[in-house]
Every structure is written in C-alpha cells, then in structure tokens.
Design goal:
By secondary structure, this protein is mainly alpha-helical. It has a single domain (3-321), classed as Formate dehydrogenase/DMSO reductase fold (Up-down Bundle), CATH 1.20.1630. Helix content is 74%, strand content 3%. It contains 13 helices and 4 strands. The chain has helices spanning 3-30, 32-35, 39-49, 53-70, 72-81, 83-102, 109-139, 153-156, 159-183, 187-218, 223-240, 245-267, 291-318; strands at 106-107, 270-272, 282-283, 334-335. The strands form 2 sheets. Strands 1-4 form a two-stranded parallel sheet. Strands 2-3 form a two-stranded antiparallel sheet.
Length: 339
C-alpha cells in the first residue's frame, strides 16, 4: 500500500474518532434544554462531558494538521472553498468552550441561561455544518484546472448537503442522548432515554435516506456493507436503550463509524472531486506531499499515536462513574444581591 493511501486511511480514522467522541459532546450540548429542566439537571448533563470535551476536540486539530501535512493541495482547496462554513464552525466551538467555563462564574439564573443558549448554539452549528461539509466533499465542488474553488456559499447549500447536515444533527443528538442515559441517574437519565427513543427513529429515517442517496449516487460498491452496518447498529442501539446502556452507546458509536466509512469509501481515490471536469479533481496522488514528508509523518504517528490513545482511554476510565443529582455541589458563584 502506498504512503498516500495509508495517510488517506489515517485521516479517515482521525475524522471517525472525532465524530464518535465529539459527536456525543455535540448531542449533550444540543439536548441541554430538553434534558435539563432545572439548573441542577443542566449541571449534571454538562458534567458528563466536562472532563473530556476539550480532549475530544484534539482529534479535530490532529485531523486538520494531518490533512495540511499529508495532502496540502486538499487542505488549500478545502479551506479556501469552505472558508465561511469552517469559520462559523470555529466561532461556534470557541463560543461553546467559553460557555462551559463562564456559565458558573456568576450566581445568576439569567447569566447561566444565556450561556446555556451559547452551549446549544455552539453544539448545533458544528453538528449541522460538518454534515454539510462532508456531503459536499463526497458530492464534489466546482474546482477549476488550478484546483481553485469557483463556487459560492449557496453552491454548498444543495439538497444532498443539507440532508447530510440534518443526518449528522439527528445522529449526534441520538448519540448524546444515549451517552446521557449511560452516564447519569435521575431525571436527566429518564428524559435522555425518552429523547433517544423518540429521536432515534428520526435519526434512522434521515440518516438512512442520506446513506441510501450516498450509495446510489457515489457508492463504491463495497460501501453498501457499511450502510447496512450503520442501519443495523442504529436499530440495535434504539432497542437496547434503557436495557443495556453501554451496549446501546457502543452501537450508536458503530453507526457513526459506519457512516464515516461510507463517506470516505465513496470518496476514494479522490479527496475532493470536481463537478466541472473529473480531470480537475484532487486525488490521493496529485494532492499529496512528497514521499519524504509522508515517511517522516508515518514514523511520528507510529510513536505518538499509541501514547495519545492510552492517555485518552485512561481519562475515560477515571471519569467512568455515573453522575447523580446529589453529586452536584451548591452554586458557588457571586450572589446576585452582591453584584
């Protein structure tokens, strides 16, 4: 296997890890006003992802860095053509991180409500736009002979891409609801189970429609197996909610893996197809760095990847316990009367 193919596979693995791990973060954030009727409930929900959300975002940084180093032409065309969408994602992620840190700084219901809205916005926007972006990557965009993007923002808002955005929102919402069912006790868990059962059907329908469209229009033949795995995992996860929470969460994670495999499998050997002329498409060959660069990157990845995975696995093990309402201490912000 050529180094270009290896790095395409590694980048696919990085994006898969990001969507699996950050997917439940997005889901918890989007569902915050649904599962959290009181401030204590919302704090329970936020504390399920509090120790891990920033570590999960590292997968995005590494995926972007690996794309820049291994396939600079892909990175350049992608980030120039998708500039506004990626900027919105970045701003949303920054806003969400700030909201996590600031919502408890002042003991004011209005203050916390405003930051809770920021968490919802900072979770919903990336969940939607990542689906739109990857759907466009698979579908193709107008690239000219110099591999420059010639479309506009409206070019990216086509029906297939919008369906992809809705599919990732529904899928991440389900993933987050199952994660809350796994990680909490009390009212938050009960509401999360209800959301998973109701929203899971939506994820199955919308996600299924998107995958079928992908397979019919861009499928690689073998990707039909990944579509079947995604559908079976989603159905199994729904059936196991409130029975075996751990298995239900594992199955929703498998569904996200299968969806990502379908997208990257439908894309290969292209990395960014051109809708103007297939000859203008970026591939794993014409978008790649030099063999020397890829060789050095491979050795670095072989040394440090196991270390990072071990550390992140240890983090999840340390914070594996369910969170109960009684675990949340009294609000410690500045009293409203003292401001």
């Amino acid at each position: 296997m050529a180094l270009t193919d290896i790095w395409f596979l590694l980048i696919a693995v990085l994006w898969t890890g990001y969507f699996v791990l950050e997917g439940f973060d997005f889901g918890v954030g989007m569902l915050l006003p649904v599962v959290g009727r009181t401030d204590n409930d919302r704090r329970v929900a936020i504390n399920t992802i509090g120790p891990v959300w920033d570590g999960n975002e590292v997968w995005l940084i590494v995926a972007g860095g690996a794309t820049f180093a291994a396939f600079p032409e892909w990175y350049a065309s992608l980030f120039s053509g998708f500039y506004l969408a990626l900027l919105l994602i970045l701003l949303a992620l920054i806003l969400r991180g700030v909201a996590f840190e600031f919502r408890g700084k002042i003991d004011s219901e209005r203050w916390r409500r405003n930051w809770d809205r920021a968490i919802v916005f900072g979770s919903l926007v990336p969940a939607l736009l990542w689906g739109v972006a990857f759907a466009n990557i698979v579908r193709g965009v107008p690239l000219d002979a110099q591999h420059a993007y010639t479309g506009t923002l409206l070019t990216l808002l086509n029906p297939y891409a919008l369906l992809g955005g809705l599919a990732t929102v529904a899928l991440f919402g389900l993933h987050g609801a199952v994660f809350l069912a796994l990680k909490t006790e009390g009212p938050v868990r009960e509401r999360a189970v209800d959301v998973a059962r109701r929203g899971g059907l939506l994820a199955l329908v919308v996600g299924g429609a998107f995958l079928v469209w992908t397979e019919l229009a861009h499928g690689a033949g073998w990707t039909v197996g990944a579509v079947a795995v995604a559908a079976a995992a989603l159905a199994g996860g729904l059936w196991l909610v409130n029975r075996r929470d751990g298995w239900a969460f594992a199955l929703t994670a498998v569904a996200i893996v299968a969806v990502t495999v379908t997208l990257f499998g439908s894309l290969y050997p292209d990395v960014l197809p051109s809708t103007i002329d297939p000859a203008y498409s970026l591939t794993t060959t014409n978008a790649a760095s030099t063999p020397y660069t890829l060789t050095i990157m491979t050795w670095v990845a072989a040394v440090f990847t196991p270390i990072v995975l071990a550390y992140q696995g240890w983090t999840f093990w340390v914070f594996r316990r369910r969170i109960r309402p009684s675990d949340i201490p009294a609000s410690s912000g500045v009293p409203a009367t003292a401001r």
